[in-house]
Amino acid sequence: MSTTTPDMGILRQPKTVLFGPGKRHQIPRIVRPLAEHLLVTTDARMATTPEFIEIIDAIKATGVDVSIYAEAEPDLPREDIVQVIERFGHTQVDAILGIGGGSCMDLAKVVSIVLANGGDVRDYYGEFLVPGPGVPVITVPTTGGTGAEVTCISVVFDTEKGMKVGVASPFLEAHTAVIDPELTLTCPPGLTAATGADALSHLVEAFTGRVKNPSVDDLDTKLYAGKNRLTDVFSRNGLTLLNTSLEAVAANPSDLEARADTMFAAYSAGMSINTAGTAGAHAIQGSVGNLTHTPHGFGISALLPYVMRFNLPERVAEFAEIGRLLGVADASAPLLDQAHAGIQRIEALLAAIGAPLDVKSLGLSPDDFDFVADQAMLATRLIANNPRALTKEAVVAILERSYAGDRSWWEV
């Protein structure tokens, strides 16, 4: 089978996806058949908003008992999971509603499988290690970026290990995702930028990732099946939407149409990475974020220009198509020129939303480059998705270019 063209397609997705302004009002009717006792995971800011209070009151009005954990933290520390299990593990939880950013939804998904299967979340680090389904999860994103509402992976920061690890299993897939763009209207500009950059990177890395065309055994043991025909459909859709919506949201945060397009693009990105996976930029970002205490999306945006340039020799046709999708490439021009235009447009979109384009601005020191590269090599699930072999030396070279803001081209 071809190693450059996808021969197959695969998607994993929630049972139901409900999208559109005001669709949060459907949540009580979704919850009622599933639960007598609902656990809600969210963060302290979201828990005080009128929209959240309205949703919880409406659920309670249907006769459902509701318990709330409103202490979710960014980057989902393992301690949050342990605390939720200690607090609610001895009560009957019929369903979980994860509402907020990616960490709130990832928390709901991973608590679901620990509650149902027992043990510690560490027992499930890796791929296909969850033995059975969890309790039903309803995901409700309030940012336009992570795609966690539709992915079957939760990323956990294990403080003792000093790194992010993934729990990846089809059993983490949400029962229902409710995507209401109105919930993002109060999203702070910095968070809008960071999550927008994350969504853009998901689309780029899924569309330009490695083609694996997996065997029957691979599909039964590995979550990331590689870039494929079905993920490409979502990647193209998301890239086209973000090409206009990101700049529009940056110019006018109250633009509901732009917010809706951004959330639709983030959902499309989630659908893409759910089986194609992310790649080099995500492999490197984990320790960068840990060292600099910067948002995930900003770490990604500071790396993506240089990872794209590194990968370009293996993905000229894909980056050229991105150039055409984004309306900046002349289809009659040489493919390499089209690819350059596509990469430069991605960078322009990152700049337009105020995302950083170099790791120096994040506060990363050159003294840390070797450590970051060593940590990146441990992210084998992501390294395997990168279209060009990513060695420790290559990671250091990417970091050096990012630190210097050197956006010249690697040789093709």
From TrEMBL:
It comes from Herbiconiux aconitum. PANTHER family: ALCOHOL DEHYDROGENASE, ALCOHOL DEHYDROGENASE 4. Residues 192-403 form the Fe-containing alcohol dehydrogenase-like C-terminal domain. The keyword NAD applies. This is Iron-containing alcohol dehydrogenase. InterPro entries: ADH_Fe/GldA, ADH_Fe_C, ADH_Fe_CS, Alcohol_dehydrogenase_Fe. It comes from the Bacteria. Residues 14-181 form the Alcohol dehydrogenase iron-type/glycerol dehydrogenase GldA domain. CDD domains: Fe-ADH-like. Keywords: NAD, Oxidoreductase.
